[in-house]
Amino acid sequence: MSTPPAPQSGSAQPMLAQPMLEVRDLHAYYGKSHILHGVHLDVRQGEIVSLLGRNGVGRSTTIKAVMGMVDCRGSVKFRGAELVGLKAFEVAHRGLGYVPENRDIFPTLTVRQNLLLGQKGTRQSGRWKMDDMFELFPRLRERADTEAGVLSGGEQQMLTLCRTLMGDPELVMIDEPTEGLAPKIVEQVARLFEEIRKRGVSILLVEQKLAIALDISERLYVMGHGRIVFEGRPSDVRGNAAMRKEWLEV
Amino acid sequence: MEFFLVQLLNGISYGLLLFMLSSGLTIVFSLMGVLNFAHASFYMLGAYFAYQVSTVLGFWAGLVVAPLLVGLVGMAVERYGLRQVHKHGHVAELLFTFGLAYLIEEAVHLIWGRSALEYRVPPELDGPIFQIMGSPYPMYRTFMMLVSVAMLVSIWLALTRTRIGLVIQAALSHPETVEALGHNVPRVFMLVFGGGAALAGLAGVIGGAAFVTDPGMAVSVGPIVFVIVVVGGMGSLAGAFVASLLIGCLQNFSISLDWSLAGLFSWFGWMVGPDTPLWSLWNVKLSQAAPVLPYLLMVLMLIFRPKGLMGTREG
Ligand SMILES: Nc1ncnc2c1ncn2[C@@H]1O[C@H](COP(=O)(O)OP(=O)(O)O)[C@@H](O)[C@H]1O
Ligand SMILES: [Mg+2]
């Protein structure tokens, strides 16, 4: 099998250790339509990596494929073990977390019950306790026993993030968390990402806009038409107006 | 008054039995999108299994063992049948459950024959339990109500107070998200399908002994259960509950009333007699029309309020 040419790279990061997540030649399908055409990407321990691109280029499909939620072929290795072929709940138990893009909280359950469902077992163990979430977002404590369906958009976004963290993932994949949020809430989200990184959890962040991605990411990937078309550090993105014009700006 | 109370109690006990059947159908429908045509077959299996167990170990063992067996059959059907068919879409699923209903009926014919079984109320539950204004009320009817209410409370507690209940409620809105959080959703589907089958089985155990245990019992109760699910609102447990009681009472009151349109007309002072056009229609007694009333209700509901009493979906 021929390896496609490596995407243009602006960084020469030394390969210190094997990446935590290695996606190689990933193809994904919805029924007969072929959406991903050989995606490659890596996330290392403790890194924040962003996956950018315009609407419809396949960013959500990429993380869903990693999560085992979409038909795919190719290879996805997490801590050296192959994930392709596993069911989503099995992937979650390997230590991957997924925060879906449409804030699909469970509307008829309370905030507390939503958080409890993020836990994989009945015991709270690992990095995050419910009280940590309440410390970080006092709003959630105030509304702990309210039905999640009545929360505001920003509160629902916090809840989906916290719910996934309750499962104590090693790597969390977050789909467009700032979409449609007020700037003040976007700041809160960015602060939560710092907290996540501090606790040793890696992040694969899907965004459309460069906004917070450039500030918090170690590395960024840009997708176009179901492929990775650029890979680099924030400075490389800042310095490459042509690439931004071709793949990012609307 | 006394007639009214007795009929009301009969209606409620029958309605609760219907709810035991329709609750499983509704939960399975809203969770998995499967409209299970074979649901009433699990009701029939419950009665037959209970009969079989009771010939060896007595009624009470049958009451416990038969629903569990039916639950196992249900889980196997989901795991090895529906789950495979699922990828081909809802029509395939519907046809699958349709075929399954026939298979179960034929299996019952082969194993137990075509005539009704001698499956009866046990002597300790036979006879009256209390008097309503002087007329005795049967102990077995009371027992039916107790079992149904106990079941209802347990389902409610299981759905709202246990972890798996929360997973089920969450999966009602976003099954994929629930699975991505690490919950084995396929297994939850299997358990819910099995649980629904077991509830139908339990209804069969107590209904079979009260009414009749024969190979036609699935066909006779199946359509009513569908009526309930439609009238209550597809996928609404609360709606199914209200509709079950409503139809339970409707059927009980209507079979014992000989009101007719002719009677109603004469009440207004319009005399109709054998020479009035369509006399046979005006003269139909409510008790004669009783079997079609639920369907009439369903048709009217579909025309005037297609989402049912408490349904959330449109159409
Ligand atoms: N469930 C689906 N069924 C069929 N096609 C889909 C589905 N979800 C997404 N697509 C298509 O796949 C492509 C990539 O979508 P997606 O991964 O959601 O893009 P992004 O997240 O980058 O906006 C789009 O062309 C979209 O129309
Ligand atoms: Mg997307």
Describe the overall structure:
The complex is a heterodimer of chains A (250) and B (315). Chain A has a domain at 1-7 and 18-95 and 206-250: Rossmann fold (3-Layer(aba) Sandwich), CATH 3.40.50.300. In chain A, strand 1 (21-30) and strand 2 (33-43) form a beta hairpin. Chain A has helices at residues 59-66, 88-93, 111-118, 130-136, 138-142, 153-165, 183-198, 211-216, 234-238, 241-247; strands spanning 21-30, 33-43, 48-52, 71-78, 81-82, 96-99, 171-175, 202-207, 219-224, 227-232. In chain A, helix 3 packs parallel to helix 6 (153-165). In chain A, the strands form two sheets. Chain A has a six-stranded mixed β-sheet with strand order 6-7-8-3-9-10, sandwiched between helices. The model of chain A is unreliable at 9-14 (pLDDT under 50). The termini of chain A are far apart. The radius of gyration of chain A is 18 Å and the shape is globular. Chain A is 32% helix and 25% strand. Chain B is 72% helix and 3% strand. In chain B, strands 1-2 form a two-stranded antiparallel sheet. The radius of gyration of chain B is 21 Å and the shape is globular. The two termini of chain B are 40 Å apart. The chains are: A alpha/beta (250), B mainly alpha (315). Magnesium ion is lined by residues 59-60, 101, 175-176 of chain A.
